[in-house]
Amino acid sequence: MSTLPSTAALKSPGESYLHVLHALMLRDMRTRFGASLWGYGVVVLWPCVHVFMLIAIYSFQKIPSPLGDSRAIFFASGAVPVLVFQYISREVMKAVISNRPLTYYPQVKLFDVIFARILVEIVTGFLALIVVFTVLLCMGENPVPANPYEAMCAYASAILLGIGIGTINVAIIGFFPGWLLGYALLSIVLYISSGVIFMPSFLPDNIYMWLKYNPVLQLAEWMRSAYYPYSGLDIDRMYIILFALSAISIGLYLVKTVVAKMTA
Questions:
Q1: How far is Cα 168 from Cα 95, in angstroms, rounded to an integer?
Q2: Using CA atoms, how far apart are residues 106 and 161, in angstroms rounded to an integer?
Q3: Which DSSP symbol is given to 234?
Q4: How far apart are CA 211 and CA 262, in angstroms?
Q5: What Å distances lie between residue 202 and 186, 196, 231, CA to CA?
Q6: pTM score
Q7: What is the Cα gyration radius of the chain?
Q8: 23-56 burial string, b = 16+ CB within 10 Å, else e?
Q9: What are phi and psi of 18, to 5 degrees?
Q10: DSSP string, 122-133
Q11: What is 23-83 written as a DSSP string?
Q12: DSSP code of residue 41
């Protein structure tokens, strides 16, 4: 007597992989944010609070915007790409720490855990961007950049750089668990030197020249050039993209080394 094949047997390898990825994303969101929608909402709003706290502080102190007439647009245009980069690069590393036991299942690979967290962070960051746009509109500001294409490229490059540094962090944390704290300190340095709250181009040339090697600074300037095309900012777009792609390549190679070390 013949039996019908099981549902799992009918699934193609691609469908099985998507099922694993979907399950990892759902588990990631439920364990980090709780089972309720409010928990996820708090995470979406957290970077928005960061942006508007900057706006509130400098508005209260009546500090003029270094570019344009709007403090809100100036700070938001610098903070958004920097925060997108920082959240992805940090949360990818934390995903491996919290979900490492899942890699003992044969269906789940370390790369699947990384990829699932990247997708969650991209979606979360995009929702946060929508909230920032909406609030700015309610404040009477015009959040639409003068050059939307440049703004989209800067945002996509921030995601790409976050993925690259995030994968390198995954490899480092596999050998040195204390790097979680080390990267937190490094993130503060990168944030302060990225020009979110000031214009690095106003600094002396000998200082600005060295700061330009920080790709996060150039991300902030790239986004600002989309809002202030008259600012004369000189962005090395190829440097940012090559830096991000090199980081991804190095990170994937190191992650493969970590996998070999874990399974040895």
A1: 13
A2: 30
A3: -
A4: 37
A5: 24, 13, 11
A6: 0.86
A7: 21
A8: ebbeebbeebbeeeeeebeebbeebbebbbebbe
A9: -65, -35
A10: HHHHHHHHHHHH
A11: HHHHHHHHHHH-SSHHHHHHHHHHHHHHHHHHHHHHHHTTPPPSSSS-HHHHHHHHHHHHH
A12: H
Q: For residue 157, what are its two tokens? A: 């490059």
Q: Is 144 left (phi over 0), alpha (psi -120 to 50) or beta?
A: beta
Quick one: tokens of 67?
């570019």
The structure tokens 């691609």 sit at: 14
Tens digits of pLDDT across the chain (264 residues): 444 344 444 567 677 777 777 777 777 777 766 656 666 677 777 778 878 888 888 777 777 777 877 888 888 888 899 999 999 999 888 887 777 767 676 777 778 888 888 988 898 889 888 988 898 898 888 889 999 999 999 999 999 999 999 999 988 887 888 888 889 899 889 888 888 888 888 888 888 889 899 999 999 999 999 999 888 888 899 999 999 999 999 998 888 876 656 555
For tokens 């979406």, the residue is 44
Query: How long a stretch of residues is the chain?
Result: 264
